[in-house]
Structure formats: C-alpha cells, structure tokens
C-alpha cells in the first residue's frame, strides 16, 4: 500500500501512473500531479489475454516513459505471459495489497 500511495502522491518523472480495474471507476479520488484522462474498454471476458491487450493499448497510447499500472491481485494480472511482456515493454504492475480473511 505504501508503494501505491507514494506513486499517487509523488508521480514519477520517468513515466505515468495508471490505475486499472475491470469493474470501472468505482472510487476515483483526486490526487496531485498530472492526470484526468480515463481510458476504457468493454470486453465480454476478463481473462489474461484481454488484460494484456489493454496493457498493449496503454503502451501504444503512451509510447514514451515507463508505465506504472496499479491493479488488484486478480489472477489474470499475474499470468506469466503478462509479466513477461511487461518487463521489456517498460510496464511495472503495482499490485494492491491482498486482504486476508479474519
């Protein structure tokens, strides 16, 4: 959580911080820094292939600089194919903290 809050409060000069959520902008909070754009895609499924396609679309939209993509711990986000694509393409996935029952 500390990493995410730091990215929000001190956006890195070498890239952009982007939040991704399959369910839409449920709880947008204003933060300092550049921003205000919203990108969305409607898909019938939420598999790793769709998520990777979304990351590729973001990379095409922002070709310069690193992308810090804040996302939850949904299993398709952690698929090896996704992680392997991110590294050489300047995308860092920053996962929200997992909650533990009890």
TrEMBL record:
InterPro entries: RNaseH_sf, Tc1-like_DDE_dom. Residues 34-101 form the Tc1-like transposase DDE domain. This is Transposase. It comes from Kribbella deserti.
